Amino acid sequence: MGTASKMSLSEFGRHLEVLRGSMSLREAARKSGLSHAYIRDLELSRNRSTNTPIVPSPETLKRLANAYGYSYIDLMIESGLISESEHLEQHYGGGSEEEEIFLQKFRRMSNEKKKRLLKLMDNLEKIEKRQDLTSDSRVYSLIQ
Asked: Is domain 9-90 in CATH 3.30.565.10, yes or no?
């Protein structure tokens, strides 16, 4: 999952088209349970019948995320329906600024780096339990 950020309506429509990739509109419709015409309207960011802007509902985004194998939360953030900070607050108890920065950086890491970082964190927990460390400087010196 990449770092999600709010996009303009037209950028979001193009993003949906890129996510669909080589999948036909009819295949996307079959997988999502949405009409192929509605999916195309979303990609064009407007209702082609009325020429008015069109914004997908959370349920629509959930269906598209499942059909495209993409993160529902990222689509919600990218569409502007929720902000990343709202998501963090709802699901992680309103994390601190440091937690938000950590999560943003974590999302940008390769899977290999994520695995290494998680292993490091597990090792730090084991060391803390074994030696009952309470000082950040002592923990820092152990990982140097």
From this structure: no
CA angle 83, 66, 27 (to 5 degrees): 130
DSSP secondary structure letter of residue 2: -
Q: Where are the domains of the chain?
A: 9-90, 110-144
Phi/psi of residue 46, nearest 5 degrees: -155, 150
End-to-end CA separation in angstroms for the chain: 30
Long-range CB contacts for residues 54-62, cutoff 8 Å, separation at least 24: 55/9, 55/79, 55/81, 60/34
Residue-level pLDDT at 2: 43
Which residue spans within 50-114 are E strands per DSSP? 52-53
Question: What's the farthest any 2 CA atoms get from each other in the chain?
Answer: 68
Which residues are bridge partners to 73 per DSSP? none
Q: What are phi and psi of 53, to 5 degrees?
A: -60, 150
Instruction: Encode pLDDT of 50-72 as tens digits.
Output: 999 999 999 999 999 999 999 88
Say if residues 46 and 53 touch (Cβ distance below 8 Å).
yes
